[in-house]
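Quick one, probably user error.
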């Protein structure tokens, strides 16, 4: 876990603020004082959730997407640490690890010739896969629930593989996404994490919730049709435009399909309307629909992890603050759902 950078006191001082008469989240949550403390913290029975950031958008660039997901962790961390500490937020259940740092990889990439970058990006994603897999496996094996924030959707592979290795069995996944991320096995990037997870034997049943019909190729639809015992989907147009089914019924159908064994919850912010992301959409699910989705699937005892990805830090302070609030809502919604609230 050489890439893991823990939260230090300087970071806390810089991004948190106190107000007289209030107690903030950062005052009652848990941190590591040293990486050597990780095993003992994971043994702590009070800690149920372990959150960490993934500071990369190399997988997005490898898929010809827009950069920005690398810095999502920072805006999410600032938002959640400054929440109120109360019986609704319950910060004592959470261990905040820090983030996986890939600055060395970015430095190496800066020296690569432009015509060789795509291959270099995809090679780099394999290294990122290894780091994410190792950390998720450690957390799940300890009986805790990992929450992954930031980075491209390539990190779904590490979340799935790490969980499967810890549990010694394939897992299922529900993906709240405008895209299937079932692209060809042509080198790792943000568009084929689920393809590789299926191919490598870590992902069993896969449900994509709210796929956009305009951005799903005929080849992928044919692939899903040929794999319908293990892959199912609902489209955004059926749910919201034509209203051929309801959000509630589609959620129940998806739950029935994936909840027979342990499953991961994937939230791609590309699916949420007007949220800055690698493929921002003007037509998507609302924030409140997304929150209900996280709570519904998070409430099932087989929910094993939450992965929120592809949100982009734009550099605009107000926009970043709103994105941070969105992420903190989803994090607390998942924690409350798993706590039975």
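Nope, works fine. Designed sequence:
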């Amino acid at each position: 876990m050489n890439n893991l950078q823990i939260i230090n006191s300087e970071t806390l001082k810089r991004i948190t603020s106190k107000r007289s008469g209030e107690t903030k989240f950062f005052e009652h949550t848990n941190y590591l004082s040293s990486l050597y403390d990780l095993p003992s913290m994971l043994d702590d029975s009070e800690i149920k959730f372990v959150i960490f950031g993934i500071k990369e958008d190399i997988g997005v660039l490898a898929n010809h997407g827009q950069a920005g997901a690398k810095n999502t962790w920072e805006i999410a961390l600032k938002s959640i640490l400054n929440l109120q500490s109360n019986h609704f937020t319950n910060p004592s259940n959470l261990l905040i690890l820090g983030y996986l740092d890939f600055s060395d990889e970015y430095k190496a990439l800066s020296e690569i010739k432009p015509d060789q970058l795509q291959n270099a990006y995809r090679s780099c994603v394999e290294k990122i896969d290894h780091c994410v897999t190792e950390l998720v496996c450690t957390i799940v094996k300890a009986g805790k629930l990992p929450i992954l924030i930031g980075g491209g959707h390539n990190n779904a592979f590490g979340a799935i593989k790490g969980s499967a290795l810890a549990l010694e069995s394939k897992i299922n996944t529900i993906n709240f996404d405008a895209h299937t991320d079932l692209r060809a096995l042509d080198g790792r990037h943000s568009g084929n994490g689920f393809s590789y997870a299926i191919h490598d034997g870590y992902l069993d049943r896969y449900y994509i919730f709210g796929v956009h019909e305009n951005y799903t190729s005929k080849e992928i639809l044919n692939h899903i049709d040929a794999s319908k015992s293990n892959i199912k989907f609902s489209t955004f147009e059926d749910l919201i435009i034509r209203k051929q089914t309801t959000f509630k019924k589609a959620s129940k159908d998806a739950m029935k399909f994936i909840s027979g064994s342990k499953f991961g919850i994937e939230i791609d912010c590309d699916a949420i309307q007007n949220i800055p992301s690698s493929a921002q959409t003007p037509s998507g699910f609302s924030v409140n629909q997304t929150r209900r989705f996280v709570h519904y699937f998070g409430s099932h005892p087989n929910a094993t992890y939450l992965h929120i990805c592809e949100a982009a830090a734009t550099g605009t302070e107000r926009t970043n603050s709103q994105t941070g609030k969105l992420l903190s809502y989803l994090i607390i919604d998942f924690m409350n759902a798993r706590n039975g609230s």
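The radius of gyration is 19 Å.
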